[in-house]
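Q&A log
Question type: sequence-to-structure
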Amino acid sequence: MALPPNARGIDPAISLFNHLVLPGQLPGSLDPNLPELETELADRILQVSCFMRVNAGDKSSRLWEAIGRSITSSRTINSNGRIESAILEEAMAKMEPSDFLLLHIPRQNAAVYIYFPSE
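Response status: OK
Response body:
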């Protein structure tokens, strides 16, 4: 799914890049299409993980499958701009040792990374 030009008429790919990396000039406000940028980023990561899972060797394909599963779970947990505790608990119960979860905390502009520690 490609993003339409944002309210400032900036190319969607440039908007996504600027969201991930600090642009040359910092914006004075939040991106007006932040939910769309987040969706676009997750979609691209899922596309890459699917491609890599299919085209990688046996060991790597399991890693890319875990990345895709983790991003999908994280999207579900963070839907509608808030974290639902029941959905989070369910996702944590289903986690496999190679999985992780990302929780977005918009008010603090922060994320929480949940994973199983290595032995």
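Response note: The CA atoms of residues 17 and 72 lie 21 Å apart.
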